[in-house]
UniProtKB/TrEMBL annotation:
InterPro entries: Tet_reg_excision_RteC
Pfam families referenced in this protein's UniProt entry, alphabetically: RteC
Origin: domain of life: Bacteria
Protein name per its UniProtKB record: RteC protein
Length: 288
């Protein structure tokens, strides 16, 4: 499947970028240029694979142009923009440089304001327009949602894949600028490095979500259980179903064991504390 091939290629790309970061024989300018060239080459490789591949279904094609290709494109956009930002950086003191970065942040804000509809579609993980945005050769794509690029290769692009990549990259650029103002290092797209999959029963994670919700631990309690569950689902790549409906499964349990998983968690944590605090004769000898 193209997804597996792309994931392998993406892993190689991130390793190549890390190698550039760790190179000691290149200037920062040389490293930035190398990253642009590297990400461009990997996007070309991805294109070559797609042009020689037949998608098995519309769902597979949508998944590729909505999720997979933007990962590659966003890297190229990010490093290209960083190169431009740093090349255009003015000479002067810290205050002058801070003003320059803040001006770039204002440009980013204008981008999101101008594209608020497609950004909302991206952020909400909606899918009702996917067949118009992420399939090739759609005759009348929703131009009110995103502009049509005139330089696109119709064999390797859809109405929405570039905008998703642009959004992904721009979010990272904003963080890059914020860290630059604060004098901190920034490593983009680090969330993609470690995949976290919930491998236990989904009802257990729902218990955790309700525990967080009922104790008002997020946003001072100003978040609905539905939104909170969606966050958990996104982080752990799992579907829990409708929160209120599944909560009824918890309510129907016996009174003494309604929170089975939370009880198990508490016991496991307490056991770990007890085990680490347990008397160890070897430790005692070492302190004598």
């Amino acid at each position: 499947m193209i997804k597996d091939l792309a994931e392998q290629l993406y892993t190689e790309e991130r390793m190549a970028i890390d190698a550039i970061d760790n190179a000691t024989d290149q200037s920062m300018t040389g490293q930035r240029k190398a990253k642009v060239e590297t990400t461009s080459n990997y996007l070309i490789q991805l294109k070559e694979r797609v042009l020689n591949y037949s998608f098995s279904s519309n769902e597979e094609e949508i998944g590729f142009f909505k999720l997979t290709k933007p990962k590659f494109s966003s890297l190229l956009i990010f490093y290209s923009d960083v190169e431009r930002i740093e090349l255009d950086k003015p000479e002067g003191g810290l205050a002058h440089l801070k003003g320059y970065y803040e001006s770039e942040l204002k440009t980013i804000k204008r981008f999101f304001d101008a594209n608020r509809q497609i950004y909302a579609y991206y952020r909400s993980e909606a899918d009702y327009l996917d067949s118009q945005l992420f399939l090739r050769g759609v005759p009348n794509p929703p131009r009110w949602l995103c502009k049509i690029r005139v330089d696109q290769d119709e064999r390797f692009s859809t109405a929405g894949d570039y905008m998703f990549a642009r959004i992904m990259a721009t979010e990272q650029i904003a963080r890059y600028l914020e860290n630059s103002i604060s004098g901190l290092d920034f490593h983009p797209f680090t969330d993609d490095d470690i995949e976290t999959n919930w491998t236990g029963e989904s009802i257990n994670l729902l218990e955790v979500a309700y525990g967080v919700y009922c104790t008002s631990q997020v946003n001072h309690g100003k978040i609905g259980i539905g939104a909170l569950v969606q966050k958990f689902e996104k982080v752990f790549n799992v579907k829990m179903g409708r929160p209120y409906r599944r909560f009824s499964e918890i309510k129907q349990r016996k009174r003494l064991s309604r929170t089975n998983y939370l009880d198990e968690m508490a016991k496991s944590i307490n056991k770990k504390i007890d085990d680490e605090d347990a008397y160890n004769p070897n430790d005692h000898k070492n302190h004598d």
